[in-house]
Amino acid sequence: MARDMSDKDILKMELEQLQKEVKNTREPVSKTAKEICEWVEAQSAEDPLIKGVPEDKNPFREKGGCIIT
Amino acid sequence: MCDQTFLAITFGPCDNCSQNKPLMNIYLKNEPINYCSLCVELMACQGLAKGETTNTLKAESESLKAKLEEERAKLHDVELHQVAEKIDALGQFVMKTRRTLKGHGNKVLCMDWCRDKRRIVSSSQDGKVIVWDAYTTNKEHAVTMPCTWVMACAYAPSGCAVACGGLDNKCSVYPLSLDKNENLAAKKKSVAMHTNYLSSCSFTNSDMQILTSSGDGTCALWDVESGQLLQSFHGHSADVLSLDLAPSETGNTFVSGGCDKKANVWDMRSGQNVQSFETHESDINNVKYYPSGDAFATGSDDATCRLYDLRADREVAIYSKDSIIFGASSVDFSLSGRLLFAGYNDYTINVWDVLKGTRVAILFGHENRVSTVRVSPDGTAFCSGSWDNTLRIWA
Fold first, then answer.
1. Which chain A residues are Cβ-neighbours of B138 within 8 angstroms?
2. Which residue among A24, B212, B235, B269 is the one 20 to 30 A from B183 at the CA level?
3. What is the number of helices (H) and of strands (E) in chain A?
4. CB distance A43–B72 less than 8 Å?
């Protein structure tokens, strides 16, 4: 669709979009960044890639050799 | 003595139709415009605001962009990594390849995890779509698509079907049966139809709806059963390369990124473009929502990955290094959102600390471009697919 539009139509589309966006509500970065950091801190305890998984519980550990009895 | 009124008529090329005609000198928005009378009438009929030429549109667009930047800059009072200074740094990172999935005959272009955390679907340039068991590396299903360059594949939430598509401009859904001998291609259902290649697809929270993005510049939401188009999303001015749905708790939005360097956030119900971000310097190859739903990351051909905060409505972090000059093809977050895994065209995967903005590790192993990187649903491992025909599971 975008390929079929003339340059003028594309510009009109962008213009309408910008007019809408200027009206969006925004919050200060200090507030949102803090919230992101807090969220991550809370979740980090449960993140297997950060806290590590003990080898015996890791489903992706190296496959052991076979024991033939 | 009588007043003599002179009407001066200018004669020359019309601004609109370029023909030599008597011109009407109009002042629109304080700019003199010279249109012939025919064009003035046409303009009135077309219902355009008077005086809209490409130049005036561009000028208005530029001024609005400047205003938008100004509004955003007012709230830019601190950087993310400054807020993150108090947080402990991450320890040494040890990750290695635990499994290598070999079997594709050509470049691996896309992959997706099943919600059971163990199965993976991957698609490749040779038209093959393979379902693997990541624990055992066994291939469970294989389908041959009628087209090459299968650029998109996705696992259904139920684990009972996969969707894929590429140069055929369609997205097809294949139900997976437990009977290994059954011919999957026979049960194929064509769901989406675009006018250009399919770049990305994703099931929504159920098996019943699929969201697709295409080289034709649009994204679309389809009903799987009927193949009907439920909603289409217009707003990109070039190919859309990637999309990602917001985590289910945060509502009905998704983000898309494309060759127009823009990342757009859409409301799925109304089809409206809610927010848009244009700070990358080249094509955006991949977009991924942050696990909390308040932000998203992008990977781009300009060799950087960036984090955009949706509530602050701006870019809050750039992940780049002078030594990284190749584009990032794919990005994904770890479960907590502390780590960002990014696959690059220089065959490496870089692991970034999202909050501090520093690189935590580089992972080597692939012998060609890394095309796709996805963390498993429970966060215990991540899988990377590459143009070297293999997939690797890292943990």
1. none
2. B212
3. 3, 0
4. no
A16 touches chain B (CB under 8 A): no
| Residues in Cβ contact with B232 at an 8 Å cutoff, skipping those fewer than 6 apart | B218, B219, B220, B221, B271
Residues B355 and B352: their CA atoms lie apart, in Å, by: 9
A8 chain-B contacts, CB cut-off 8 A: 54, 57
* CB burial of residue B230 (10 Å; 0-12, 13-18, 19+): middle
Nearest by CB to A47, from B75, B379, B395: name it.
B379
Residue B304 token pair = 């950087």
Q: Name which of B113, B157, B156, B109 is nearest B135 in CA terms.
A: B113
Could you state, in order of their start, the residue ranges of all structural domains in chain A?
Answer: 7-42
Q: In 10 A of CB B390, how many CB atoms?
A: 21
Residue B180, classified by CB atoms within 10 Å of its CB into exposed (0-12), middle (13-18) or buried (19+), is: exposed
Q: What is the DSSP letter of A2?
A: G
The tens digit of pLDDT for each residue in B44-103 reads: 655 455 456 778 888 888 888 888 888 888 888 888 888 888 888 888 888 889 999 999
Distance between CA atoms of B129 and B168, rounded to whole angstroms?
Answer: 14
Q: What is the pLDDT of residue A21?
A: 83
User: pLDDT tens digit string along B274-303?
Assistant: 999 999 999 999 999 999 999 999 999 999
What are phi and psi for residue A30, nearest 5 degrees? -60, -40
* pLDDT tens string A32-57: 888 888 888 888 888 888 887 777 77
- Which candidate, B229, B162, B164, places its Cα nearest to that of B193? B229
Which of A29-38, A52-61, B247-256, B299-308 has maximum average pLDDT?
A: B299-308
Q: Note whether B263 and B305 are within 8 A (CB).
A: no
Burial B33-69 (b: 16+ CB within 10 A, else e): bbbbeebbeebeeeeeeebbeeebbeebbeebbeebe
Inter-chain CB proximity B379 and A2 less than 8 Å = no
- What is the value of pTM for the model shown? 0.83
